[in-house]
């Protein structure tokens, strides 16, 4: 069984348990349900740099990235750096994240927040909303076309932006539909952890222009972004490169300064 299958199998169990713990009616009572969301897609369209900075403690591919930081400092640091949005891993078992991390990030900055999660159930979209997200991720590798349609339409009804992630041509063709806002190409194969920016380059021309194109993973320098921009990418999701330092915000500030030169 590959790691993605393992994660989704565990996720189904986790979500079933969560549903019993916190009923939908309670999620809907969150004050954050009334909060007007901020569109990451709009921010990216208007930005010259397009950085989406991630909070990521560890990952199945790298084990520990950073265990000592607190979410509040990271969120404020990213906001001060001038990023377009922040991604918050909420998976606990494989990434060391939580919905509390999302809530803390929400309380610490005004950036659009992406709930970085393995979404397999509409219940998780209600959680995203209740804990302060503005954007949700849908991963084509673990969803059918019907699920992508149902989840993205439900997200739109909650005023959440949708980032759909693909890794190959087949996933892309399966997924294209009007209820998506952004198309993300993951440079990392989630089944093998292999990383190559060539994935973003080769899929770019097959992504219709109505979607904001986002390149995800393995971006470790400004040069990578400069080579991806001519392929139409307006968003760049960066985790490890910022998180592996003692001060991700300062690191992001310097990165964005270099990018603007
Ligand atoms: O740390 P990196 O290589 O900069 O990658 C960030 C982000 O793209 C990565 O965390 C990611 C992309 N898609 C995902 C899906 C699930 C979990 C994590 C991810």
What attributes does this structure have?
aromatic amino acid biosynthesis; 42% helix; alpha/beta; amino-acid biosynthesis; two-stranded antiparallel ribbon; 17% strand; tryptophan biosynthesis; single chain; Indole-3-glycerol_P_synth; binds indole-3-glycerol phosphate; 8-stranded parallel barrel; TIM Barrel; 261 residues
Describe what is shown at a glance:
It is an enzyme of class 4 (lyase). With 261 residues, this protein is of the alpha/beta class. It has helices at residues 3-21, 24-27, 40-46, 71-81, 99-108, 123-130, 145-157, 169-175, 198-203, 222-228, 240-243, 248-260; strands at residues 51-55, 58-59, 63-64, 85-89, 113-116, 135-139, 161-166, 182-186, 212-216, 233-238.
Please provide a written account of the structure.
The chain is α/β, with parallel strands linked by helices and 261 residues long. It has a single domain (3-260), classed as Aldolase class I (TIM Barrel). It is 42% helix and 17% strand. It has twelve helices and ten strands. The chain has helices at 3-21, 24-27, 40-46, 71-81, 99-108, 123-130, 145-157, 169-175, 198-203, 222-228, 240-243, 248-260; strands at 51-55, 58-59, 63-64, 85-89, 113-116, 135-139, 161-166, 182-186, 212-216, 233-238. The strands form two sheets. The protein has an eight-stranded parallel β-barrel, surrounded by five helices. Strands 2-3 form a two-stranded antiparallel sheet. α4 packs across α5 (99-108), α4 (71-81) packs parallel to α12 (248-260) and α10 (222-228) crosses α12. The longest helix is centred in the first third of the chain and has 19 residues, at 3-21. The protein is globular, with a radius of gyration of 17 Å. The model has no long low-confidence stretch (mean pLDDT 97). The structure holds indole-3-glycerol phosphate.
């Amino acid at each position: 069984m590959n790691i993605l299958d393992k994660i989704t199998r565990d996720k189904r169990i986790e979500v079933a348990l969560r549903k019993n713990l916190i009923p939908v009616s309670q999620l809907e009572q969150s004050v954050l349900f009334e909060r007007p969301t901020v569109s990451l897609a709009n921010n990216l369209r208007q930005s010259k740099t397009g950085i989406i900075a991630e909070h990521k403690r560890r990952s199945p591919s790298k084990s520990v990235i950073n265990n000592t930081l607190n979410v509040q400092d990271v969120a404020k640091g990213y906001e001060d750096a001038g990023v377009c949005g922040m991604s918050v891993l909420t998976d606990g078992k494989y990434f060391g994240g939580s919905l509390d991390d999302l809530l803390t990030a929400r309380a610490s900055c005004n950036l659009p927040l992406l709930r970085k999660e393995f979404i397999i159930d509409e219940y998780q979209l209600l959680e995203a909303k209740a804990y302060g997200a503005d954007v949700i991720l849908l991963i084509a590798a673990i969803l059918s076309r019907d699920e992508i349609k149902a989840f993205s339409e439900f997200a739109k009804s909650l005023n959440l932006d949708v980032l759909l992630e693909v890794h190959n041509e087949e996933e892309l063709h399966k997924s294209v539909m009007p209820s998506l806002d952004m198309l993300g190409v993951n440079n990392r194969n989630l089944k093998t952890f292999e990383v190559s920016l060539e994935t973003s380059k080769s899929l770019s021309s097959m992504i219709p222009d109505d979607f904001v194109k986002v390149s995800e993973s393995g971006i470790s320098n400004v040069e990578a972004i400069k080579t991806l921009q001519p392929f139409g990418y307006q968003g760049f999701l960066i985790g490890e490169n910022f998180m592996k330092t003692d001060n991700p915000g300062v690191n992001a500030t310097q990165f964005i300064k270099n990018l603007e030169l």
